[in-house]
Amino acid sequence: PYGKYIAKVDPAALPQRERDIVILRFFYRLTPAEAARRTGVSYANARFLQHRALQKLRAFLEAQGLGKESL
Q: Is the pTM above the cut of 0.70?
């Protein structure tokens, strides 16, 4: 159901490490520990990178008028 919103998000706008974590977590469905291992960062850093990336993606969607209320 979120496909039309995903198309509006440009993952290239994220820094490489944040983009890698998001792709591994949500497209490849890896656990945070697995994503951390694959990217060579600590578990805590992987969680932080994910949190920061999701904040940026949420802000982008809200700026496009696609906040929680529009879903």
A: yes
Residues sharing a CB contact under 8 Å with residue 56, sequence separation 6 or more, in sequence order: 13, 14, 18
Residues 6+ apart with CB under 8 A from 62: none
Cα atoms found within 13 Å of the Cα of residue 36, Cβ hemisphere only: 13
d(CA 35, CA 31): 6
* Tens digits of residue pLDDT in 2-52: 555 555 666 677 899 999 999 999 899 999 999 999 999 999 999 999 999
